[in-house]
Amino acid sequence: VESIERIGSEWGDKIITAQIVHLEKVEGSDHLNYTRINTGNRELNVICGAPNIAVNDKVPLALPGARIGDLTISESKKFGYVSQGMLCSPRELGLGNDHAGIYILEPDTPLNRPLADLFSETVLEFSIKAHRGDLSSIIGIAREVSALTGEPLRIPQPVLHEKGTPAAEMVKIRVEDASLCPRYSARIVSGIKIAPSPSWMGRRLLAAGMRPISNIVDITNYVMLEFGQPLHGFDYDLIRQKEIIVRRAGEGETMKTLDGVKRKLKPDMLLIADPEGPTAIAGVMGGAISEVNDNTTTVLLESANFAAGSVRRTSVALGLRSDASSRFEKGLDPELTILGANRAAQLMQDLAGAIISPGIVDFYPEPAKPRTLLFSTSEIEWLTAVKPSIQETAKALEALGFQVKVVDKQAGEMQVTIPTYRKDIEEGADLVEEVVRLLGYDRIPSTIPAGPLPQPSKDHWFEREYEIRDILIGAGLNEVISYALTSRARTAKLLPYPSKEAAQALLGWEGVNVSWAADRAFNASSLPAVILVNPLTVELESLRVTLMSNMLETVQENYKRSHEDLRFFEVGRRYLPASQVHEQPDERRTVGIALCGPARISWHTELGREADFYDLKGTVETLVERLHIKDYRIVPAQHPSFHPGRCAQLEVANPGERTFHPVGVLGEVHPLVQQQYDLPYRAYLAELDLETLYTAAPARLTYEPISRQQELTRDLAVIVDQQVPAQELQEAMMQSAGQLLYAARLFDVYTGEPIPEGKKNLTYSLVYQATDRTLTDAEANSVQETILQELNKRFGAVL
Fold first, then answer.
1. What is the 8-class DSSP label of residue 414?
2. 766, 714 contact by CB (below 8 A)
């Protein structure tokens, strides 16, 4: 129980029942009336502006001293008349939202009685979980109370007096998709008289949060609250060709619903239609074309069962929620349709003078069958340590409507038949919950677990991602976590010159196939992505294909608060769309890095400098080397999101291989992309695929003893073309020298006189060392000569 509301608790004895005995217009006013009110023992004058009162109406009267909300009633003088109280509307009394008129009481209401004695009501508000569709009704709650208290459950048993033409001869029902509508039942009632509902029904509807409309509409709502079965009344005379068709909507089909809104329908939405067009959205809302009105005399009463998922999708797509849809979404018992239709027909007969046509038209091709589970009291003990007897267990389950057949009394085994209204019961653990909550949770003992602890399961990726975080935090970065949901428009901000080729590059380095219509130009909405069927907002309509957009948004938001320490990383996933229709998206574990603004926080701003490409490159190299990846290289690359000429690609070789594989991209953000995110500083990004990176990381580390032999160091300066990468020269040195070259490090780059134009001088420090002997100068010189010959052969390098 979420809350308890006591309607009328604040009325006291100052709000009483009374009767209007005189009514006349107030001179000088266009809406006020002067009334004489008989309280049963005296008459009072009251000025009232409500348009719905008449002589002899019985009404609630607030006497001087009564409190209505924050207002205290007192005698007042208006237009020369003394007003000695106030007549009350339903909203003022807390009986509804209607403030347009006075609450008119039943003609047989006794006078001079405190209104609280007649109309006070206690309203319980329940929190019903989504899997308990059976509790969306008064009877469902009563069944629970019956089980808890042991009091018998009383379900209304309608008694119908049928006559006239059989319903089957008056209407034809055709269901085209039984998977979305397992059952459709319809009754015909005629000779009805549309009128207000009796006050007892109106008060109950108001207390439940529904506004009374008319007897027919109120009865359908009343039965829905009572049994949990949504009903809908169609004006039978407005159903064209007297045929109901349950079908999916056609492409581009529209209809106007009861709220007066014209709605565009989609092919996956289920409709109630006649041969000439739709008349209702199944399970959500009726249509204006066939609604019950003041001239209605014959009603087709729909009582159907619709698939929960279908109603949910339709309701969300249309942004249309109703009391009916909220019940269908939880999953209803198909056996309720006949009970609901019969109860509503009986009430229409009693309250609206209806004539019930014989029979009921019922489409029910596959009747629901109760399921049976084999259950044992040992399951209760195993899960909760409660040890109920088999008699206690059977009694608890039977109280909730389950049928129990004891199979083995000694072993505590039984066969439990689950009623069709309990769709949430799927296994023995569900029955354990039912038994224990009835017996009382206080019976669950406090125990210490016994037995050996389960072996901890190793999650390698958890360990790996923790290692990545540890390294990058140690490198001075701050971890962030962003939403995996984004939009294609936000992702497209990474493309300064949008094109299909640019989008392909943005998706990654895994060779994802991007499908485009041949005649379709690129735009943000055509960017390949995994699109959500029911997005919460347009800003969260797809899964991210890259972390770079999130990283720049994080930099942008943090820059608004501080211009310093804009150094971030995120370990997360990106979602690459499948190249084939029926394939699942490719979820890639990824790390994103972003640097912007000052490279380091300095106490003296003049000593500080902005972060640059080499800060980012150093961070990536730190990550790779801390993972003990020996063979890697950073080579020039092109990427649409990065500054031309200031972009590189990280490549790694797996242990024992010489083939390098692309891992990710790093570089300076393109100036136009930088403008998109309003960043005054240059920004630097890296995005690395962790799954490819970890294939190059050794599974285990093997340590070798430090060589006891002396090193020989030689410098090697060569002149090559300016466009030759220094990394390629270094790799060629290591390959051609064999095992004797221990290390090669570039320590100087020079251009200018006397180096020829278009050339550069690269100077390397080479370290030679053998594990079994001290190398001679002659051996080192021979290897160095071999290196020089290889560099000259491959790159035209000269000493």
1. E
2. yes
